Amino acid sequence: MAITAAVKYKLTLEYDGTGYRGWQTQQNARSVQGTLIQAAGEFFGQDVDVQGAGRTDAGVHALGQVAHLTVKNGQQPRKIREGLNDLLPAGINILKVEQVTADFHARHDAVARVYVYVVSRVRTAFGKRYVWWVKDALNAVKMRDACQLFQGFHDFASFADRRLDRNASTKVQIDSISTEEIGDLIVFRVAGSHFLWKMVRRMAGVLVEVGRGNLAKGDVEAMLTSISELPARLTAPPSGLFLAQVLYKGDVEEKSHPPLPSLGNSSIPVPEGPAGNRQQAISTREHGAGSRKMGQVSTKDSSVSSTGQAAYQVRNDIKENRGRVPKLPPSSRRSSRGGGGYSPKK
Q: What one-character DSSP code corresponds to residue 148?
């Protein structure tokens, strides 16, 4: 709704996307934008217009989404932030409110966006809504090397879901990209001019298959030079994806991460009984109470389901197809709900 209005504000907000059908207002569905419009309308007692910098999908979160709010009669920014937060559900939080000029547009004025995807190597009860738990062993070094292939200006047609906007260009400038290990988390971070629908989730899914050993750097390169349906079948679940930051002229990228525990500080308890007590006593006596690492047992599972066999089959497929991107064997197409690489289309 366009408002011939007097005052416009820039809102920076964070939200837990679980339970929402994405950012954009939809009929008969709960959305972040719709919830914010309802709260703002109640606070101001008038019709309002709220437009976001980016449309996050169902279940995707935000650490720094930006929206503009247009109203007929304004208020002090501090009062707006406090008033909206009183009316919004706990999963949506306004971080900052700034009055801006009438020509500011949250989406059109943005020069870059930053996304973060979080993969967990261990099962977690408290972080389940904010990570993708992958059971199989992952080689983070290979993932780090492969992700650098995405940097620069490329055609991401293989990574785009074209159903939303069939006429949109699939060429995207990736300004920076990295993969970082934080405890038992692998954090994939990417900044670019804009992103196509499901593009980041498909990039994350492909990198996980590289970490599993099912894909090599050459396979990823082939996806950027020719059309492949494989990334669509490897779409990572929305739970691990965060819109981290929206950048405008003069802004500096912040290296923020989701407020999650590293999951790497816990250890398997020493078995109960005489043998366990004796082992704990020896560890404490020899290494000191302040140096427990020597007495800890690794939490990582050393077993790798059928990854080795899958990688062998993929390598043979590549040879037979002379470098064309192969189809993954059935062993790699498990539901992402159980930590596998295949996520069915919505």
A: G
